[in-house]
Amino acid sequence: MIVSKDPNEVRDQILSWKSEKLSVGFAPTMGFLHEGHANLFVRSAGENSKTVVSIFVNPAQFNDPEDYLKYPINTEGDLEICKSSKVDLVYLPDKDTMYPGGIPEVELRIPHLMKNLDATTRPGHFEGVLLVLSRLFHTIPADRSYFGKKDYQQYLVVKEFVKVLGFPMEIIGVDTVRSAEGLALSSRNARLIGQEKEEALLLIRALRLGESLIRQGEKDPSEVLTVMRDVLDSSSKIQTDYLEILDANTLEELPILKGEILLAVAAFLGQVRLIDNLTVKVS
């Protein structure tokens, strides 16, 4: 496994592989890797000749500086996970490499997909995501790039961004990996303490209850939201950031529940912000 901090070395290696007609898969990450990330890498390894992973905690996508400073880092452990997941190259840029001269004042937006969910509650977040990805995609001209659907809005935004800017790359969404109890795996879970992990399960319980109501024929989104919100409000430790039911393809509000539907939640447990979602199709 190649490990490099040099963007030119990384790009040259990838272009060399592609000159040999080898396909390249890419999974951008912020490190502190877990089974969910490994699932992306294994998926890529099964669909491509070579797999590349980047590890970079991107300051441009944090609207809360304290959250950035608290983001967990374990580079040694990350490299072990990459190696065991058959990753061929790991790119480890630092802040000065990624943003020489500082973070540029430029705004990259996909307006029709960035007006609700995290785009509303974390202003500037997706602009920072698209900034770092635009730089990574130039350094790593992969054939396919893999994103977990736990960050569902991010997946849609990036997919449209690549289409609009003409990056010759396919964006592939990979289903959320969960613990045996149902908790969506996240690097932030490491910051949950005491009973907070048990309380965090209320997010998936609320989503699954909402899904069940929709499958039973409920068509009114407000009715479903009320029941889901009651589940979250049953814990005094959970502070809901957002709870929304939207069209899963356009992220528009639905007056009547039909088609492919996204149920999405973000909530704070202490200082830890968690997100989760489910999609359900109904006629």
TrEMBL record:
InterPro entries: Pantoate_ligase (IPR003721), Pantoate_ligase_C (IPR042176), Rossmann-like_a/b/a_fold (IPR014729). The active site is at H37. It holds the Pfam family Pantoate_ligase. Keywords: ATP-binding, Cytoplasm, Ligase, Nucleotide-binding, Pantothenate biosynthesis. The keyword rRNA processing does not apply. ATP binds at residues 30-37, 148-151, 177, 185-188. One of its GO terms (molecular function) is pantoate-beta-alanine ligase activity. It catalyses: (R)-pantoate + beta-alanine + ATP = (R)-pantothenate + AMP + diphosphate + H(+). Its EC number is 6.3.2.1. One of its GO terms (cellular component) is cytosol. Beta-alanine binds at Q61. Pathway: Cofactor biosynthesis; (R)-pantothenate biosynthesis; (R)-pantothenate from (R)-pantoate and beta-alanine: step 1/1. One of its GO terms (biological process) is pantothenate biosynthetic process. (R)-pantoate binds at Q61, Q154. It is found in: Cytoplasm. PANTHER family: CYTIDYLATE KINASE/PANTOATE-BETA-ALANINE LIGASE (PTHR21299), PANTOATE--BETA-ALANINE LIGASE (PTHR21299:SF1). Catalyzes the condensation of pantoate with beta-alanine in an ATP-dependent reaction via a pantoyl-adenylate intermediate. HAMAP family: PanC. Homodimer. This is Pantothenate synthetase.
